Each structure stands twice: as structure tokens, then as C-alpha cells.
Amino acid sequence: MRTIYFDNAASGGYKPDCVKQAVLQALDNPANPGRSGHQASLKAAIIVSEARDNTAEFFGTDGDIVFTHNCTAALNFAILGGIPGGHAVTTVFEHNSVLRPLEHLKRLGVIDYTISVPDSSGVLRVKDIIDNIRRNTRMIIVNHVSNVTGARAPVEEIGYYAYRYGIPFLVDAAQSAGHININMKESNINILAAAGHKGLAAPQGVGVLAVSKGVKIRPIIMGGTGSRSESPIQPDDLPEGLESGTISTPAIAGLNAGIRWIKQNFDEISKKIHELTYMMYCELKKIPEVVIYTPWGHFNGIVTFNINGLAAGEVSNILDEQFNICTRPGLHCAPLAHRFLGTLKYGAVRASLSYQNTFEEVETFIDAVKTIVKRF
Predict the structure, then answer these.
(1) Backbone torsions φ then ψ of 40, nearest 5 degrees
(2) Rounded distance between C-alpha atoms, residue 374 and residue 174, angstroms
(3) Using omega within 30 degrees of 0 as the cis cutoff, is the peptide bond preceding 239 cis?
(4) What's the pLDDT band for 120 if we cut at 50, 70, 90?
(5) Residue 307 in contact with residue 315, Cβ under 8 Å?
């Protein structure tokens, strides 16, 4: 029985051939970019430089592109190194990659923060953010697409008010990058964090921190940067200041190839993910025993649900062991979202889609859920 992979929100299952080839080619060159002057090192540096340019263009920014190990690292850099004190506004949908750094700063007495709550349908409104802004608010942090429900935040409208009030705006694009068009300039996004290995079709091991001009982020990891080695002080200019140590050239080469591939196929990718999500949502909705937590109309590749009377972990295990369908149960590292949904005790089952999935796979999944309902 062929495995059906519906856990793309955790890590994307599809890597196009161009990405695999780019990674293999980079692996053939062991040189460290920016650390030596020989031809092999320069060749690696060219790959990284090209990737920066393509990533900046893809996200609509003329600022700096910092390559991190993952989206979690990018968010930590932005929060721990970007909030000088005062107050921050965020939402119940945030991942622990946001909540834990904020709580860390709060416990140190550096900041305070406020959690914005969406409406009863589970959709965040601009008013939910604006109502929590204070005179000393130093950052607004919003998850573009919830990794729990797939709900999409109105980042363009939030960005307008963030710009109007002069507050830096950080967007977590872990679930949206590659699926939804993002233009940082047009949306007034000052800082954007993205995962390479999800919608951007890159391998694991690379994340993106895109920082607009004029935004300052202090280094939180110190070490070798390949420049100013005589100084005991970490450089604070970007990207060097946030890229201490060896970066993953093969993963970055894969990211570069993935972004090129997405740009060529973006409309088709986005349309298919929307249609697959719509189909899954509508078919699950027909099953009376199924409770869906994804808001209607938010068809962004994620459908989260429970079956009445069954724990999320049990449902996910049955789907895996008996039907060869991969899903993700539990709290999805976003406890406040589950508290809001009322699923904090048992979690929920998340089915997350990608371009490589098919409508036939969705049909098989729906049949499997119906079978589980009949058995129990």
C-alpha cells in the first residue's frame, strides 16, 4: 500500500528534481563560503549570493536576507534580537517558536506582551490587533497562516496600521511561504521568517529571515563570520552578524532551486492546494461525527479535525497503521490555539496538503475516516 503523506505542515514531502540536483551539486564542493579565497570557496559563495538575491526578490524586499537553520531560529533572532524592551502584541495562533522567546523576555523583565484573540469563527481581525497596541508597543508578531487550523491572518491590513503607528511588524510565514504570494514592501512587513523545507520545497536545514532596511536586530549567537576576525565584538551588520559559523550551502542551494521552481509554477501550485483543501474540508463536513476546526473559506493546505469519542492520537495512529496515511495529532506546538479551540486536553488531527498530493488521495483519506467512524 502506497503511503499518503498529509503531514506537509510539519515538513514538505515533495522536492522537485531541480532541488535534489542543486543539493547534490553543492555537496560535491566541500568548501565553506566566505571563509577562504580559493576558487572552491568562491564558487560556494556565489551560490549563496544568488540564493539571497532570488529570495529577496521572491519576498518583495530590498532588505537583507539571513539564512538560518530553520524558521524557529529565524523567529528567535527576530524576537530576542529585535525587541529592545517595552511591549509586544501577538496572537493565540502563534507557534512556540514565538511564544517561548516572548515568555523568556517577559520572565527576564525585558518586555510584556499581549495575546490577541480571534472572533468566534476562529478568524483574526485587524481590530483584534489594534485594540492591544500600547504607547510602548515595540513589535507586532502575527502568524500568516495558522499551523493548527490553516486560518489566514489579514497581514496586509495589519501591516498598514503597523506602518501607520511606526511599529515593526514580524510575520511568521512558515505555513504560507510558497503557497501564498508575499510582498514585504506592499504589505509593510518589516521582518519575515520562513521555513525552507515546507512550501519552499527546500531540504531541511535552512530557514529565512528577511529584514527590511532600517530594522535593527542584535546578534544572539556569537562566533566566526569570516570578516573582522581581529575584533572580539560580534559584527552587528546583516547578514554576517546573524550568520555565525558555517551555513548549510547544500540546503541553501536547494532553497534557491526550490524558489525558482515555485516562481515558474506558482499559480498552479497555489490553485491546486486551495482546491485540495476545499475538497477535503467539504467531504469531512459531510460526516456528522467529525468536528472541523479550520474556518470556512480558509483553504490554505490545512484541515484540522477530531472524531467524536476518539482521541486525536488514536485516530492518527489508525490512519497510519491501517491506511498508510500520515497525519499529525496533538497540540502542534501551539498550545494557545488549542486552548482557544477547546482541544488542549486531547489535541486534534491535522491533515496538511502540498502540491504533490492528489484528489484521489483525498478520496482515500475520506473513505478511511468514514471507516474509522463506522468501527467506533
Answers:
(1) -65, -40
(2) 36
(3) yes
(4) very high
(5) yes
